[in-house]
Amino acid sequence: MPEPNIAVNNLTFTFPDSTRGLQDISLDLPPGSRTLLIGANGAGKTTLLRLLSGKRMAPSNAINIGGIDPFSTGLEGVTYLGLEWVLNPIVRTDIGVPELLRSVGGNAYPQRRDELIHILDVDLSWHLHAVSDGERRRVQLCMGLLRPWSVLLLDEITVDLDLLSRHNFLDFLKRETESRQCTIVYATHILDNLAAWPTHLVHMSLGKVKKWGGMETFEVPEVEAGGAAGNSRLGQLVLQWLREDLAQRGPRRGQAGEGKTYQSHEGKGGYGLESK
Ligand SMILES: Nc1ncnc2c1ncn2[C@@H]1O[C@H](COP(=O)(O)OP(=O)(O)OP(=O)(O)O)[C@@H](O)[C@H]1O
């Protein structure tokens, strides 16, 4: 793939037997970009990433990656790492790390394999039925990133990583985009220490893209003194977006606004809906 740009052109997609999906999405993410895909639960991030990866069929001409329609042509070089990959049962069996890495072609890329093992701090003597969730995830990331990809689509799979491992991992991805022709889209809810990482942001809500563009096009608010201590300015921006999205979506059926309140667990003795 010569120039791994991601072009989405008026993409509309509806799930079978459902009214949900994506509406009229257009994006143009340049080669070498690192995009954060931001949005509340259910905004449409996974749906978009799966369509970009070619795992779901999009209408023809709506998605173009490096000049190719990923579904019809089957794209070599596009790696999608999402929940279904994370839940692959193989990585819970009594299997050793070297064997696993070999099974995904690790021997073809020895230098890359050794670098990933170092960056993700993987112990080659681990057996995958007897490691922690975060350790397992580090091995999986090694496996998933071994083959040099042109486009990497990450669907929040760093939640188990400790802060340092996540930092090293994201640093590695940044270096990748700076040292060779490749492009990353990363859907995440965890924005801590991430402000300097993205080149682009895409804000999704209710199946649509509300805003997208280079980092320089976003007005990142000042951190409030006191109250916002510890939050990055990017975190503040996203918090503001999600509050607006929630207000726009309105209450869910049966919630406050239709004569009911949801009582919190704390101090009120249990979860329950009570009429006002
Ligand atoms: N197979 C499906 N059939 C019908 N509707 C679906 C299906 N998968 C997802 N949806 C709906 O599509 C919408 C978008 O889902 P999606 O998984 O893309 O959200 P998301 O932004 O990735 O959310 P999260 O942050 O929780 O992972 C949701 O309202 C969801 O209920």
From TrEMBL:
Keyword Membrane: no
CDD domains for the chain: ABC_ATPase (cd00267)
SMART domains: AAA (SM00382)
Domain ABC transporter: 6-231
Pfam families: ABC_tran
Renumbered residue ranges of the record's region Disordered: 249-276
Gene Ontology molecular functions: ATP binding; ATP hydrolysis activity
Protein name in the entry: ABC transporter domain-containing protein
Source organism (scientific name): Salinomyces thailandicus
